[in-house]
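Notes from hallway chat w/ T.B., transcribed later so I don't forget. T.B. wanted the structure written out for a chain they're using in a teaching module, and asked if we could keep both sequence and structure tokens in one place. Agreed to drop them here.
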Amino acid sequence: MTEPNATLRLTVAQAIVRYLMNQFIEIDGVETRICGGGFGIFGHGNVPCLGEALYPVKDDLPLYRGQNEQSMGFAAAAYAKYHLRRRFMFCTASAGPGTANLLTASALAHANRLPMLMLCGDTFLTRLPDPVLQQLEHFGNPTLGVNDAFKPVTRFWDRITHPAQIIQSLPAALATMLDPADCGPAFLGLPQDVQGWAYDYPEVFFARRVHRIRRQAPDAAEIADAAAMLATAKRPMIIAGGGVQYAGAVAELTHFAEAHNIPVVETIAGRANLLAEDALNIGPLGVTGSNSANAIAEQADVILAVGTRLQDFTTGSWTAFAKDAKIIGMNVGRHDAAKHLSMPVVGCAKLSLPALASAVEGYAAPAEWTTEAQAERAKWDGYVADNVAAGNRPNSYAQAIGVVNALCDKRDRVVTAAGGLPAEVTANWRTLDVGTVDVEFGFSCMGYEIAGGWGARIAQSEHEPTADTVVFVGDGSYLLMNSDIYSSVLTQKKLIVLVLDNGGFAVINKLQNNTGNESFNNLIADCPTVPEPFTVDFEGHARAMGAATETASNPAELAEAFKRAKAGDKTSVIVMKVDPYEGWTTEGHTWWEVGTAEVSDNANVREKHAEQEADRVKQRQGV
């Protein structure tokens, strides 16, 4: 038993590590350390003190050495997403460029509402050695540095200027990361001298503590208002977002939809809330959606939006719904619940859905409405089946997705981000099991794919070691960030990486052409500064990092290569060329607001601008 006034003399770094070691969370009745470990690249700003503190606990708090700080942050985000925000990893980087490299990853975690703790070096508090290596000097404000740039892209930010400060700051950072509404990345700037300063910390600060995720019950009046609105619906629809999974409310959502016979559509983050064969799953919604979901969205009179932030790709830049449609925003976050004058139900979906179900007991959507929605889904399924089928046509993203989908086991996890693949996976992937699809489109961040796959695999291997993590990545994102192929091989965290090579940034080339512009600087062949374009040997490159590699010429060869990759025990990279112009999923897209040139010498640009503006009439303006 700890004496009331007992203290431990520790450095700041040692105290941080000891605190993290003693924070646990209860998940399904099992107590697990909240922090699963960390990703770290050491430098002069974090190795002497934080490195010293981490070494004795290396077996209990594993530190994965990344190859790039940005990719470490992506891996941490994917780890947290796998664990449904109930566990997190820390990232540590040295002062200066190492820490600056984490900015993009922090923004990704912030946009996706994912917990990640950053323990980053900072310049000396005393300023006696200033200016130090890698310090940015602001002559009129000596307190300002690189670490201040994290303030807009974190949910919690602090610079530790005294050892006692962490007694308040660490619990506050943890509370932020575990809060369902405010969840996001936390940043602690650790000046190089302060990291090593000692302090007599109260032992009680390091006592073992078990946390639970707060479940906020909805307000009874808000439930009553929502029930009154839903009860009037002739054409109701449910939008299922990523928050459904974070709330652990997939069963409640399914029961609610079945009890009231209401069609369900999914957001990009909400993919894999329902299985493909679920009778009420009408498909993905929005810009990268399906004809089926978008067809019923245009007609719906009452929309129950559950656990979604209603991003523009979900709402078709607010053209996907009828202008007089009424929206009920059910969300644990007040800001998200009230968007576009929605009727808010602020509360956890796991509690709010049953409460609303009780309040509208006896209500069911008209059978003809649900039958119409299911008929639209059947037509969409036919389109997808043809779209993913191999045949006498060029290789495409959709064909590769179809091959992999047919050969995956139901608990295999699919990871992709940015470029054309999020749209193609969202539209064409048929969900095999709940929570098995990670399409990072909150920040749509190139480079997340392989790094996120590594982080997801670290998490997956803790619980589902026989399942695979499958990464879809284009050649553009591969060239941006690929070094965690090496990380996965080093750490024996097997990935299956599909590199689909279309010769550059083909989806942006498509957007460029679709807005009337000429192909320019997206495909390698269209770069005026490239005299002699050539293709990267992706197979050879990945092999040099230790992966098993193959190149497939067509979907049939891809299938055989994928079978071998699944049977293997190490990271495999399979390369296949796809056509940059043909084979895109052309159906299922809503309007999307993208800036177009009002004045141009190019007649095609002027024409496309006029078309874009003509479609704006469908856009809801806050109501």
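Follow-up for T.B.: The chain has three domains: 7-211, 220-379, 389-577. Might be a good example for the class.
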